[in-house]
C-alpha cells in the first residue's frame, strides 16, 4: 500500500466521532492514519482518549487569543504542519473557522454535521427537524468552505424521525449513523488522495 495519508482530528469535547475515526484508521488496510488530535479546549475529554490510543493530542486554548481568531488558527496551522498532516477532519470542533485557515486547507478539510444538509446548518439541528415535522433526519460529511456547513457534500446517512422523538433521542440515533458514515467517507477520501480505489 502507498504511504498512508496523515490525518489530524480537531475536537472540542468528548470526541465520540474522533474515537470512531481512530478505531477505523487502525485497520490494517486503512489508507490513512490519525497522527494528531488537536483541541481548542484543554479540558476536552477526547484528548485523554486519543492519548490512550497512542496518538499525540494537544490543546491550543482559544481563550488567551481573545477575539483574534486568526492568531489562534495560526498556532493550529503550525501544529498541523509540524505533524506532517495532509488531511484535517473536524469532529465536534465548535469554533467557526476563518477564511484564512479554510484557505490553507482548501480541499483537504472535512466536517460532519448532524443534519441532511443543506437543511439545518448551524446548531439545534434535531429540534429543528422535529419542529418542521420531517420524516427523516441524519448526518452529512462535507468539505469545509468559508460558508458554515456549505461545502460540497461527500455523503449522507438517513435516520427516521419517530412520532414521539425528542431532540435528545434523535441525536443519539443520528450519532450512531455518524460513527458509521464518517470513518467510511474519510477512508474513501484519503484513498482518493493516494490514488487508490476502495470499491
Automatic annotation (TrEMBL):
UniProt enzyme class: transferase
GO BP field: 'de novo' IMP biosynthetic process
Site (Raises pKa of active site His): 149
Superkingdom of this protein's organism: Bacteria
Record-given protein name: Phosphoribosylglycinamide formyltransferase
UniProt entry tagged with the keyword Lipoprotein: no
Gene3D superfamilies cross-referenced by the UniProt entry: Formyl transferase, N-terminal domain (3.40.50.170)
MF annotations from Gene Ontology: phosphoribosylglycinamide formyltransferase activity
Protein EC: 2.1.2.2
Pathway given in the UniProt record: Purine metabolism; IMP biosynthesis via de novo pathway; N(2)-formyl-N(1)-(5-phospho-D-ribosyl)glycinamide from N(1)-(5-phospho-D-ribosyl)glycinamide (10-formyl THF route): step 1/1
Biological role: Catalyzes the transfer of a formyl group from 10-formyltetrahydrofolate to 5-phospho-ribosyl-glycinamide (GAR), producing 5-phospho-ribosyl-N-formylglycinamide (FGAR) and tetrahydrofolate.
Record: active site: 113 (proton donor)
Binding site for N(1)-(5-phospho-beta-D-ribosyl)glycinamide: 15-17
Reactions mediated catalytically: N(1)-(5-phospho-beta-D-ribosyl)glycinamide + (6R)-10-formyltetrahydrofolate = N(2)-formyl-N(1)-(5-phospho-beta-D-ribosyl)glycinamide + (6S)-5,6,7,8-tetrahydrofolate + H(+)
Similarity-based family: Belongs to the GART family.
Record's keyword terms, sorted: Purine biosynthesis, Transferase
GO cellular component: cytosol
Domain Formyl transferase N-terminal: 6-185
Annotated positions binding (6R)-10-formyltetrahydrofolate: 69, 111
Organism of derivation: Brevundimonas variabilis
